[in-house]
Amino acid sequence: PVSVGMSLDIASIDTISEINMDYTATIFLRQRWTDERLCFDGNKSLSLDGRLVEMLWVPDTFIVDSKKSFLHDITVENRLIRIYPNGTVLYALRITTTVACSMDLTKYPMDKQMCTLQLESCKT
User: Fold this and answer.
1) How far does Cα 99 stand from its chain's mean position?
2) So where does this one cross the membrane (predicted)?
3) What fold characterizes domain 2-101?
4) 65: which residues sit within 8 A by CB, 6+ positions away?
5) Distance of CA 80 to the CA centre of its chain
6) What is the pLDDT along the chain (124 residues), one digit of tens a residue?
7) Which residues, in sequence order, are bridge partners of residue 116?
8) What is the domain partition of the chain in residue ranges?
């Protein structure tokens, strides 16, 4: 098994829809793991073009309850891959996602809602 560290920053909450019971947010997701096959000599990290991600193993992380998501790609895909000499990989991306949120509107307009943003990974 590979241990994957993860951090997530919410850049913005763009819309909240009571009608569709969802919200849309833009997030920055960073994942870090070590792959001994990528060790190299040197003392500086390598930053790779995001298009090279297809050539590497990356975690199969997904957003639970996502209705629609996309990676930003202006002017190029907003992905960063940095590999350190010890084989540690930093993989970062910017995602906009619309996530289902079951809202209880019985006390509207005095209601309070709690929406979650959950990420998971499949084990194979």
Assistant:
1) 13
2) none
3) Acetylcholine Binding Protein; Chain: A, (2.70.170)
4) 99, 100, 101, 116, 118
5) 12
6) 889 999 999 999 999 999 999 999 999 999 999 999 999 999 999 998 877 888 899 999 999 999 999 888 877 778 999 999 999 999 999 999 999 999 998 888 888 999 999 999 876 5
7) none
8) 2-101
